[in-house]
TrEMBL record:
This is MYO1H protein. GO terms for molecular function: cytoskeletal motor activity. It comes from the Eukaryota. It holds the Pfam family Myosin_TH1. Residues 48-218 form the TH1 domain.
Amino acid sequence: GFLMQTSEMLQKICVRNLVRKYCRGLTAERKVQLQQKVVTSAVFSGKKEGYLESLSQPFLETRLKENDLNPKVLQLIRGENIKYVTPVIKYDRNGFKARERLLVLTQSSAYVVEMAKIKQKIEYSTLKGISTSNLSDGIVVIHVPEDNKQKGDVILQCEHIFETVTKLCILANKQSVVKVVKGSLRFRVGSGKEGTMVFTVGPEPQVFKDKTGQLTVV
């Protein structure tokens, strides 16, 4: 019995040392990767299609560098530490016209940027929710409060959905507000009005306004 106990204790010590050695050998970059992937798992594992395939793809620190941004935009967000920039497609809240934009995440806010203009700023402290569907699309809706500062919720399509949403909820420290929805979701258009988005499965991916005026994501 005594030998068994000793053997178990030695095994535990050995495993602990191996884990410690592994952790010590990790680069700072690899550590950040693992911490981010843990959040991705908590938010998406078993809930969104494409999650398992995303596991093997390392997250990039950013998709575009700071100097890829227009100098005017850099001047407008001066003093805020830029953490992540990615190209996105933004859908208008009313006619659902698709527009090429950049999503810029700083340490305190998310910005939707068009060339040299900031189209919308969302301070993380005011961010109400982040919604995605359970299907393999790259749509994310950033829900904002109903106030005069905001035009309404932001509808974006991101190529690297798991990476972008993970970065956003870590920077905003709002992991708990991410929802993975089935079927449909409601979003705020502004001035008290609401819109509906429908998620469905089809032979080819597309996003369009259907006859009833809903945004349909296939």
